[in-house]
Amino acid sequence: KALLMDAECFTIPAAPDLIPEGPWKKVAGGVCAAQGFKATGAHAGLRASGKKADLALVVADAPATAAGTFTQNVMCAAPVLYCKDVLKRNQKIKAVLTNAGQANAATGTLGYEDAVATAKALAAALGCSTDEIMLQSTGVIGRRMKMENFIPAIPEIAKTLGASTEDAHRAAVAITTTDLVSKEAALQVQIGGKTVHVGGMCKGSGMIHPNMA
Amino acid sequence: TMLGVVTCDAAVAPELWTQMVKRASVASFNSITVDGDTSTNDCVIGLASGAAGNALVTDPNSADAKLLDSAVTALMQGLAKSIAWDGEGATCLLEIEVKGARSDDDARIIARSVAGSSLAKSAFFGHDPNWGRIAAAAGYSGIIFDQEDLGVQLGSMKLMEAGQPLAFDKATANKYLKDTCAKHGTVQVLVTVGKGPGKGMAWGCDLSYDYVKINAEYTT
Question: Is B59 near chain A, with CB under 8 Å?
Fold first, then answer.
């Protein structure tokens, strides 16, 4: 099944700017504002219905120094278990793959195996180790991911990576679920005489009371 | 569920980057609430490429480290607030500031307790300047303070001071909430709990009929 990247897959408004003022300059670009990163998003048929994008990929040109904070919910999802395991062994990460549609939580052993399979497919597509892959999932709890659509989409989405503001925006839309707006931002600040960028995207609208560490 | 990916092109030591991402996550995503339900999937991943070409930041007490730390925190706070703003069914963003606590952690816990109170959130949806529900939510936060030190301010209007309710203009306070919700703006609440050095913020949203509608139709 081909990936969809039509404009209609990405048409939701942007969130308002809520970043506090400070010794930084707000810039465009989201996760691609920082040098050394590419991103993309597409519709891979992972949601229950509709054409909204549902698969996002952020890739570092070279393995990047990584850190993660994760839910302390005991019933944490397979991708959370996977990421924590990877970060115990390796702090240099190449890519973050995020799907919307199914949370891959409360899916047991089979759900964990699904997560590993997606990491293997992405590692093969990018030519890196599975220990350089981070995974995120969001959507309905208790349902397995649509692997028949997911696995074939991974090598295809890797071909669509780019470093533009539009590429970052596609990724930001692809991680949304019940969100009414896409959420992305970037800052520019001077560190040690060099211009440094911090960019980001997030999603969330309901089931929101984070308690991460 | 909330998910976040943060990228940075600064060169920063791994341990320091880990501490920055953790601190920023606590001051941002861990300081929001929409419905009190902690997800199975919440996750923030921070990646630092080093492509900016700066000298490696290693000393957490250096000016560079502090500036980078504050920039990462600001970015994550902006993103986290956008989640609260976009809370399911929300008509406004709630920004709760607490001052006078014994520590910043205490202040943040009190602020989040207020932001997460279903009764306070319902009152905001109904444009009711209900200082009592705000006071109650501060009181059950688990943080001890003297109730005679409690102050509550809504926007620029003081509703309660030194533990005593004030004779405020209810119509003006009601209009403040109505006008703010009409434009999906930010309702600001300041809670004072003493004269301590601790201050903290939390963000949430009001609780509307639509929240139930959305989640009654979203399986599981």
Answer: no
